[in-house]
């Protein structure tokens, strides 16, 4: 009896969820490879018994062969049962990772997510069931509603990445609403402040570019494999500040020196700009900060956002850049212009400009400094 229970449990684990299937003969072969001495006829009887207890489905295969599968909506089967702590983990996965997962993966997780809901409801541990109500993730900066996204585009992009295939789509850059068609060689997705960016090459070119998915439509999966870009690694690409938009034709890093208002300085002492950051209080009460930072457009936008709360001391060229970008004349009458004369509202102008040009004219970012 024990052998029969173990065998039947093993059979249940072998049967996949639709659209995948498995034949009776394949189950027999796998059991035989696992040292189960059993006939094909015994397995057929086992399957019929299991079908009476569990929501298994069968369909005709080739010839007299039967194929077996679990329906999509069948609850996940696990022994021992799902622990409340595991159920909580599935609940948080559903809440926070849903936008990151392909639909096919979400479909596979659906039975477990449903089971998790039931476990939390019946666990008799109110504090555990209420935990998702006590934690949250919020974006930094001004809250913005995510842009509307074509669901078909998202499905095609996920499928292309998952199956490592190219796809064709129409793309409309911010500066060209009519847009044009591209063949994408997808390499990765990056989620940033409600916007999903595709990191990709185009056709057979090796150049890496970024495209916002909400500007894409008419996506169609192609029966062509992705062409690998030599040396590309998504994490390495991000670590090299690609999403902070390095300034072209300039050193990758700079020695930054700022004079800060005390409140801002306290914030940056808690969340440092770099490991080598140093601060010292000046006689006028402001705080002098030095740090080695990446030389990026993101740094410039960030500094512009503080307006007269920050003064760039070094590099002097950066001070002049930001003053020019603010499109204002110095208001103190001195011959040495300073970033103290800039207003934070100018940061929005810079962000809008950069958003329009970042995908198709990356080199134009350097013009922010002119």
Give the overall pLDDT as a whole number: 78
Shape: elongated
The largest beta-sheet arranges its strands as 7-6-5-4-8
Radius of gyration: 29 Å
Quaternary state of this entry equals single chain
Fraction of helical residues: 25-40%
- Approximate strand percentage: 15-25%
Q: Tally the helices: what do you get?
A: 12
Low-confidence stretches: 328-370
Q: Supply the number of structural domains.
A: 4
Helix and strand element order: HEHHEEHHHHEEEEEHEHEEHEHH
Q: Which class best fits the helix and strand makeup?
A: alpha+beta
N- to C-terminal separation?
82 Å
> Main sheet, how many strands, which sense, barrel?
5 strands, antiparallel
Count the beta strands: 12
Give the helix/strand layout.
Layout: H1 2-14, E1 22-23, H2 24-33, H3 40-53, E2 57-60, E3 66-69, H4 84-96, H5 103-122, H6 126-129, H7 151-163, E4 165-171, E5 180-192, E6 195-202, E7 209-212, E8 216-225, H8 234-239, E9 253-260, H9 262-270, E10 278-281, E11 287-294, H10 297-304, E12 310-314, H11 316-326, H12 346-357
Antiparallel strand pairs: 1-3, 2-3, 4-5, 4-8, 5-6, 6-7, 9-11, 9-12, 10-11
Helix pairs in contact: 4-5, 10-12
Task: Please characterize this protein's 3D structure.
- The protein contains 12 helices and 12 strands.
- The protein has a 5-stranded antiparallel sheet with strand order 7-6-5-4-8, with helices on one face. Strands 10-11-9-12 form a 4-stranded antiparallel sheet.
- Helix 4 packs across helix 5 and helix 10 runs antiparallel to helix 12.
């Amino acid at each position: 009896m024990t052998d029969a229970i173990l065998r039947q449990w093993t059979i249940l684990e072998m049967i996949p969820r639709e659209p995948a299937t498995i034949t009776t003969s394949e189950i027999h072969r796998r059991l035989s490879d696992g040292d189960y001495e059993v006939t094909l006829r015994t397995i057929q009887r086992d399957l019929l018994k299991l079908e009476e207890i569990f929501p298994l489905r069968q369909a005709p295969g080739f010839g007299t062969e039967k194929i077996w599968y679990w329906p999509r909506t069948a609850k996940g089967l696990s022994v021992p049962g799902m622990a409340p702590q595991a159920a909580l983990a599935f609940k948080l996965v559903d809440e926070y990772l849903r936008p990151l997962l392909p639909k096919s993966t979400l479909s596979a997780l659906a039975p477990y997510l449903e089971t998790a809901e039931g476990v939390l409801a019946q666990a008799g541990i109110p504090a555990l069931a209420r935990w998702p109500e006590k934690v949250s993730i919020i974006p930094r900066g001004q809250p913005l509603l995510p842009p509307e996204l074509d669901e078909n585009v998202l499905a095609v992009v996920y499928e292309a990445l998952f199956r490592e295939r190219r796809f064709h789509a129409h793309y409309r850059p911010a500066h060209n609403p009519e847009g044009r068609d591209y063949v994408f060689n997808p390499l990765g997705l990056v989620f940033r402040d409600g916007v999903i960016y595709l990191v990709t090459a185009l056709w057979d070119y090796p150049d890496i570019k970024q495209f916002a998915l909400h500007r894409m439509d008419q996506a169609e999966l192609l029966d062509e494999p992705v062409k690998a870009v030599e040396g590309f690694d998504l994490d390495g690409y991000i670590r090299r500040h690609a999403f902070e938009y390095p300034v072209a034709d300039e050193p990758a890093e700079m020695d930054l020196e700022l004079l800060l208002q005390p409140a801002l300085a306290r914030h940056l002492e808690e969340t440092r700009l770099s490991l080598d950051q140093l601060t010292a209080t000046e006689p006028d009460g402001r705080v002098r900060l030095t740090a080695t930072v990446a030389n990026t457009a993101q740094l410039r936008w960030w500094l512009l956002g503080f307006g007269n709360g920050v003064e760039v001391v070094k590099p002097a060229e950066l001070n002049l850049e930001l003053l020019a970008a603010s499109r204002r004349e110095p208001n103190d009458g001195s011959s040495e212009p300073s970033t103290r004369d800039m207003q934070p509202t100018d940061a929005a102008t810079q962000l809008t400009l950069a958003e329009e040009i970042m995908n198709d004219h990356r080199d134009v970012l350097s013009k922010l400094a002119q």
